[in-house]
Amino acid sequence: MAVKVRIPTPLRKLTEGKDEVTAEGTTVREVIDDLEKRYPGIKERICEEDGSIRKFVNLYVNDEDIRFKLNLDTELKEGDELSIIPAIAGGMC
Amino acid sequence: MLRIVRDAAEKVRENARASYPNECCGLLLGKEGVVLEAVKVKNINTERAQDRYEIDPREFLMVEKEAAKRGLAVIGIYHSHPDHPAEPSEFDRTRAWPEYFYLIVGVRGGRETEVRCWRLDDADVFVEEEIAEK
Protein backbone atom coordinates (compact mmCIF):
# COMPACT_ATOMS: atom_id res chain seq x y z
CA MET A 1 0.00 0.00 0.00
CA ALA A 2 1.39 3.38 -0.98
CA VAL A 3 1.45 6.32 1.40
CA LYS A 4 2.66 9.86 1.01
CA VAL A 5 5.72 10.88 3.02
CA ARG A 6 6.56 14.53 3.72
CA ILE A 7 10.30 15.23 3.65
CA PRO A 8 11.75 18.21 5.54
CA THR A 9 14.27 20.52 3.84
CA PRO A 10 17.39 19.02 5.55
CA LEU A 11 16.64 15.58 4.08
CA ARG A 12 15.68 16.65 0.57
CA LYS A 13 19.23 16.16 -0.68
CA LEU A 14 18.44 12.46 -0.33
CA THR A 15 15.11 12.62 -2.20
CA GLU A 16 16.31 14.49 -5.28
CA GLY A 17 14.94 17.70 -3.83
CA LYS A 18 11.38 16.37 -3.48
CA ASP A 19 9.31 17.59 -0.52
CA GLU A 20 6.88 14.72 -0.84
CA VAL A 21 7.53 11.15 -1.93
CA THR A 22 5.63 7.88 -2.02
CA ALA A 23 6.59 4.70 -0.19
CA GLU A 24 5.03 1.31 0.41
CA GLY A 25 4.16 -0.29 3.72
CA THR A 26 1.40 -1.04 6.19
CA THR A 27 3.28 0.22 9.26
CA VAL A 28 5.60 3.18 9.83
CA ARG A 29 8.51 0.74 10.16
CA GLU A 30 7.79 -0.81 6.75
CA VAL A 31 7.44 2.58 5.13
CA ILE A 32 10.82 3.70 6.50
CA ASP A 33 12.46 0.50 5.24
CA ASP A 34 10.93 1.07 1.83
CA LEU A 35 12.08 4.69 1.86
CA GLU A 36 15.62 3.47 2.50
CA LYS A 37 15.43 1.24 -0.61
CA ARG A 38 14.28 4.16 -2.72
CA TYR A 39 16.49 6.82 -1.14
CA PRO A 40 19.55 5.17 0.41
CA GLY A 41 20.88 6.94 3.48
CA ILE A 42 17.54 8.34 4.65
CA LYS A 43 16.91 5.73 7.33
CA GLU A 44 19.99 6.62 9.34
CA ARG A 45 18.77 10.22 9.44
CA ILE A 46 15.45 9.07 10.96
CA CYS A 47 16.47 6.10 13.10
CA GLU A 48 19.24 5.17 15.50
CA GLU A 49 21.39 2.11 14.81
CA ASP A 50 19.06 -0.02 16.97
CA GLY A 51 16.15 1.01 14.75
CA SER A 52 14.42 3.32 17.26
CA ILE A 53 13.43 6.83 16.19
CA ARG A 54 16.15 9.44 16.66
CA LYS A 55 15.61 11.75 19.61
CA PHE A 56 15.39 14.92 17.55
CA VAL A 57 13.11 13.54 14.86
CA ASN A 58 9.32 13.50 15.09
CA LEU A 59 7.16 11.26 12.96
CA TYR A 60 3.53 12.14 12.54
CA VAL A 61 0.82 10.08 10.87
CA ASN A 62 -1.55 12.70 9.58
CA ASP A 63 -1.67 15.05 12.59
CA GLU A 64 -0.65 12.59 15.30
CA ASP A 65 2.74 11.91 16.85
CA ILE A 66 3.46 8.18 16.51
CA ARG A 67 5.09 8.23 19.97
CA PHE A 68 1.55 8.55 21.31
CA LYS A 69 0.33 5.73 19.09
CA LEU A 70 2.14 2.45 18.48
CA ASN A 71 5.42 4.10 17.57
CA LEU A 72 7.07 2.36 14.59
CA ASP A 73 4.33 -0.28 14.66
CA THR A 74 1.67 2.36 14.02
CA GLU A 75 -0.45 1.10 11.16
CA LEU A 76 -1.07 3.09 8.04
CA LYS A 77 -4.05 2.99 5.77
CA GLU A 78 -4.59 4.10 2.23
CA GLY A 79 -4.44 7.87 1.97
CA ASP A 80 -2.50 8.39 5.22
CA GLU A 81 0.36 10.83 5.25
CA LEU A 82 3.59 10.24 7.17
CA SER A 83 5.47 13.44 8.04
CA ILE A 84 9.11 13.59 9.09
CA ILE A 85 9.44 16.68 11.27
CA PRO A 86 12.75 17.93 12.63
CA ALA A 87 12.71 18.79 16.34
CA ILE A 88 13.73 22.45 16.35
CA ALA A 89 15.24 23.97 19.47
CA GLY A 90 18.08 26.16 20.61
CA GLY A 91 18.85 29.11 22.79
CA MET A 92 21.64 31.28 24.01
CA CYS A 93 22.98 28.94 26.65
CA MET B 1 24.45 34.03 1.60
CA LEU B 2 20.95 34.50 2.97
CA ARG B 3 18.73 36.70 0.86
CA ILE B 4 15.65 37.99 2.66
CA VAL B 5 12.94 40.44 1.65
CA ARG B 6 12.71 43.57 3.80
CA ASP B 7 9.22 42.85 5.19
CA ALA B 8 10.28 39.44 6.47
CA ALA B 9 13.47 40.83 8.03
CA GLU B 10 11.50 43.59 9.73
CA LYS B 11 9.02 41.06 11.08
CA VAL B 12 11.86 39.05 12.61
CA ARG B 13 13.32 42.16 14.29
CA GLU B 14 9.88 43.26 15.52
CA ASN B 15 9.21 39.81 16.98
CA ALA B 16 12.58 39.86 18.76
CA ARG B 17 11.89 43.30 20.29
CA ALA B 18 8.34 42.42 21.36
CA SER B 19 9.38 39.14 22.99
CA TYR B 20 12.14 40.72 25.08
CA PRO B 21 13.23 39.67 27.72
CA ASN B 22 12.18 36.29 26.39
CA GLU B 23 13.48 34.57 23.30
CA CYS B 24 11.30 34.58 20.22
CA CYS B 25 11.30 31.94 17.52
CA GLY B 26 9.90 31.47 14.07
CA LEU B 27 10.24 29.90 10.67
CA LEU B 28 11.67 31.43 7.51
CA LEU B 29 9.74 30.51 4.38
CA GLY B 30 11.05 30.91 0.91
CA LYS B 31 12.18 29.37 -2.31
CA GLU B 32 15.40 29.21 -4.30
CA GLY B 33 17.36 30.39 -1.30
CA VAL B 34 15.37 33.60 -0.79
CA VAL B 35 13.35 34.17 2.39
CA LEU B 36 10.00 35.66 1.41
CA GLU B 37 8.13 35.35 4.70
CA ALA B 38 8.85 35.05 8.41
CA VAL B 39 6.27 33.20 10.48
CA LYS B 40 6.27 33.70 14.24
CA VAL B 41 5.63 30.50 16.19
CA LYS B 42 5.12 29.71 19.83
CA ASN B 43 8.08 28.97 22.10
CA ILE B 44 6.96 25.84 23.93
CA ASN B 45 9.91 25.96 26.32
CA THR B 46 8.03 28.06 28.87
CA GLU B 47 10.28 27.09 31.79
CA ARG B 48 13.37 28.63 30.22
CA ALA B 49 11.79 31.14 27.83
CA GLN B 50 14.54 33.66 28.55
CA ASP B 51 17.36 31.54 27.20
CA ARG B 52 15.89 28.63 25.27
CA TYR B 53 13.36 28.03 22.54
CA GLU B 54 11.63 24.98 21.21
CA ILE B 55 9.15 24.80 18.37
CA ASP B 56 6.02 22.66 18.62
CA PRO B 57 6.37 19.98 15.90
CA ARG B 58 2.64 20.15 15.20
CA GLU B 59 2.84 23.89 14.57
CA PHE B 60 5.94 23.32 12.42
CA LEU B 61 3.99 20.79 10.35
CA MET B 62 1.01 23.12 9.93
CA VAL B 63 3.21 26.00 8.77
CA GLU B 64 5.20 23.76 6.43
CA LYS B 65 2.07 22.24 4.85
CA GLU B 66 0.47 25.63 4.34
CA ALA B 67 3.72 26.95 2.82
CA ALA B 68 4.00 23.95 0.48
CA LYS B 69 0.58 24.76 -0.97
CA ARG B 70 2.04 28.10 -2.05
CA GLY B 71 5.24 26.60 -3.43
CA LEU B 72 7.31 27.69 -0.42
CA ALA B 73 9.47 25.68 1.97
CA VAL B 74 10.87 26.17 5.45
CA ILE B 75 14.44 27.20 4.62
CA GLY B 76 15.46 28.59 7.97
CA ILE B 77 14.72 29.22 11.61
CA TYR B 78 15.02 32.48 13.54
CA HIS B 79 15.30 33.19 17.23
CA SER B 80 16.55 35.95 19.51
CA HIS B 81 19.26 36.17 22.16
CA PRO B 82 18.07 38.66 24.82
CA ASP B 83 21.01 40.64 26.24
CA HIS B 84 23.40 38.41 24.39
CA PRO B 85 25.27 38.58 21.06
CA ALA B 86 23.74 37.07 17.93
CA GLU B 87 26.18 34.19 17.99
CA PRO B 88 25.07 30.58 18.22
CA SER B 89 25.62 28.82 21.51
CA GLU B 90 26.91 25.28 21.81
CA PHE B 91 23.31 24.28 22.54
CA ASP B 92 22.22 25.98 19.29
CA ARG B 93 24.88 24.01 17.44
CA THR B 94 24.08 20.61 18.92
CA ARG B 95 20.39 21.06 18.10
CA ALA B 96 20.88 22.50 14.61
CA TRP B 97 19.99 20.74 11.39
CA PRO B 98 22.03 20.96 8.20
CA GLU B 99 20.73 23.01 5.26
CA TYR B 100 18.64 25.41 7.36
CA PHE B 101 19.70 29.01 7.74
CA TYR B 102 19.72 30.04 11.41
CA LEU B 103 19.00 33.72 11.84
CA ILE B 104 19.77 35.10 15.30
CA VAL B 105 18.76 38.53 16.58
CA GLY B 106 20.75 40.02 19.44
CA VAL B 107 18.50 42.19 21.63
CA ARG B 108 19.67 44.50 24.40
CA GLY B 109 17.19 46.31 26.61
CA GLY B 110 14.38 45.61 24.12
CA ARG B 111 16.24 46.95 21.08
CA GLU B 112 17.90 44.75 18.52
CA THR B 113 21.65 45.19 18.33
CA GLU B 114 22.51 42.87 15.46
CA VAL B 115 21.09 40.22 13.17
CA ARG B 116 23.42 37.49 11.99
CA CYS B 117 22.96 34.30 10.04
CA TRP B 118 24.61 30.93 10.51
CA ARG B 119 24.57 27.57 8.76
CA LEU B 120 26.18 24.24 9.60
CA ASP B 121 29.03 23.09 7.38
CA ASP B 122 29.81 19.45 6.60
CA ALA B 123 31.69 19.09 9.91
CA ASP B 124 28.67 20.41 11.88
CA VAL B 125 30.41 23.70 12.60
CA PHE B 126 28.41 26.93 12.31
CA VAL B 127 29.71 29.19 9.56
CA GLU B 128 28.45 32.74 9.29
CA GLU B 129 26.46 33.61 6.19
CA GLU B 130 26.20 37.11 4.81
CA ILE B 131 22.69 38.59 4.88
CA ALA B 132 21.36 40.50 1.89
CA GLU B 133 18.13 42.34 2.65
CA LYS B 134 16.20 43.52 -0.36
- SSE arrangement of chain B, N to C: EHEEEHEHEEEE
Determine the CATH superfamily of chain A.
Answer: Beta-grasp domain
Our count of domains of chain A comes out at 1
In terms of DSSP E residues, the strand content of chain B is: 35-45%
The CATH class assignment of chain A is: Alpha Beta
Write the layout of secondary structure elements.
The complex is a heterodimer of chains A (93) and B (134).
Chain A: E1 2-6, E2 20-24, H1 28-38, H2 43-46, E3 57-61, E4 64-65, E5 81-86, E6 89-90
Parallel strand pairs in A: 1-5
Antiparallel strand pairs in A: 1-2, 3-4, 3-5
Chain B: E1 2-4, H1 6-19, E2 25-31, E3 34-41, E4 53-54, H2 57-69, E5 73-82, H3 90-94, E6 101-108, E7 111-120, E8 126-129, E9 131-133
Parallel strand pairs in B: 1-3, 1-9, 5-6
Antiparallel strand pairs in B: 2-3, 2-5, 6-7, 7-8
Structure write-up:
The complex is a heterodimer of chains A (93) and B (134). Helices cover 16% and strands 27% of the residues of chain A. Chain A has two helices and six strands. Chain A is globular. The N and C termini of chain A lie far apart (46 Å). In chain A, 30% of the residues are buried. With 134 residues, chain B is of the alpha/beta class. Chain B has one domain (2-108): Cytidine Deaminase, domain 2 (3-Layer(aba) Sandwich). Chain B has helices spanning 6-19, 57-69, 90-94; strands at residues 2-4, 25-31, 34-41, 53-54, 73-82, 101-108, 111-120, 126-129, 131-133. The radius of gyration of chain B is 14 Å and the shape is globular. Chain B starts with a strand and ends with a strand. Chain A binds chain B through residues 6, 8-10, 12-13, 19-20, 56, 58, 60, 63, 65, 83, 85-93, and chain B through 23, 25, 45, 48, 51-55, 57-58, 60-61, 64-65, 68, 73-75, 77, 79, 81-82, 84, 88-89, 91-92, 95-100, 102. β6 (89-90) of chain A pairs antiparallel with β4 (53-54) of chain B.
